[in-house]
Amino acid sequence: MTGIRVMRLGELTDEERQSLFGRSQLGVPAVMDACRQIIESVRCQGDEALLACTARFDQVILSSSDLRVKKEEFEQAERRLPTGMKAAVNHAIGNIRKFHEAQVPRGIRWVETERGVWCGERWTPIESVCLYVPRGRGAFPSVAYMLGVPARLAGVPKITLCTPPGEGGKVDPATLYVAGVLGIDEVYRIGGAQAVAAVAYGTQSIPRSAKFVGPGNVYVEAARKLLSDILDPGPPAGPSESLILCDESADPENAAWNLLIEAEHGENSTAILVTHVPAAARAIAEAVERLYALLSSQRREFAETVLGGRGGILITDSLAESIGFANAFAAEHVALMVADPWDVLQELTHAGEIVFGEYPIISLANYAMGINAILPTGGRARTTSGVSVFDFLKRTALGFLTTKGFRSLQEEVSVMSRYEGFSAHHEAVERWRVGTGR
What we know:
By secondary structure, the protein is α/β, with parallel strands linked by helices. The chain has helices at residues 14-22, 32-45, 47-57, 71-80, 83-101, 141-154, 173-181, 192-201, 218-226, 252-263, 278-291, 297-310, 319-329, 341-347, 362-367, 403-420, 423-431, and strands at 6-8, 109-114, 117-125, 128-132, 158-163, 186-189, 211-213, 241-246, 270-275, 312-315, 333-337, 353-355, 393-401. The strands form 3 sheets. The protein has a 6-stranded parallel beta sheet with strand order 1-10-9-8-11-12, sandwiched between helices. The chain has a 4-stranded parallel beta sheet with strand order 6-5-4-7, with helices on both faces. A 3-stranded antiparallel beta sheet has the order 2-3-13. The relative contact order is 0.15. The model has no long low-confidence stretch (mean pLDDT 94).
């Protein structure tokens, strides 16, 4: 067998382990200098630089008037998109909306910390957000609704969408259909690092946004890092990655399909299957070799590249060691294909998402279950979460005191501020002119 790598955890060298854990993020430093040049050109030249980058990287010639998608293109997309595709999109949007509606905060939450002292928090939408829908390895309308639905539910006043142009400068019709359904009429045909720069600085045709949300390649990731002081870069979401955790109960062919789901995304993806059962590893590897033939030529090439170099099958000495590796790896997508997933779920704490049960198929979550498929990559699931309504909201703390509450805190604040050396702090609470209050 030549198309899939099989490793033993205990035999990995430090270099192999570093490469495995580094995933696609190892490519980001290599493109930093190129991204700096792109960003600077967009900052200084605006649309002119965007058009030059589009011609260079996308092989598409545009004028400034072409950057924003026109109304008639939305109408054409709706007319030409097959009925079945529109029905699938609408079904998925319904599930995504139902799940995310439950996240929307309802009013102000107040807590009386002591008599007369009220603390609260109020959620309000971010004023402007750009959604990014990648295009390089295909068209991804699912990304548009995974981002657009929670942004709409959050009540963001100004939502724009950037997506790279395809052949002939066309924008993916399904992505336009999603935008139309969600009422997003500002769609721009621009991608890559130049899109991030355009949103950060604004150009003659593209407005600035306060936040940029969506997955992207290493150039997009690098640009977000470089512009993070100017633009909220949103939650990290780089090239796809998955971890399948198996024991002897897993059907080899099912496990192989799950492994191939993220492996076929592109050569920068990461897909790894972890098991403590050598016989299962062999059976799954054999199944993967058979199933390659059922993929399209491009997707097979991607999958073989990923499973032969960046990922593959990892054999551990025990289920506990497999879980430990999964927690350390902190993958974007995790599928549990084990006899008792509920027990494993209690131990598995670091993952962007976890699917389990009789149908732990990652593509179901990617498209239509309702949970959000825009998830942290590169191990960031240890500290961050997938996209939700809260990515499009900001929280403001609120405080309200009655006279009784003020009196109960006055002495403590005076003591503390004197200890820390802040004169105005204690003078204010000591000299404040108090009314009769309540």
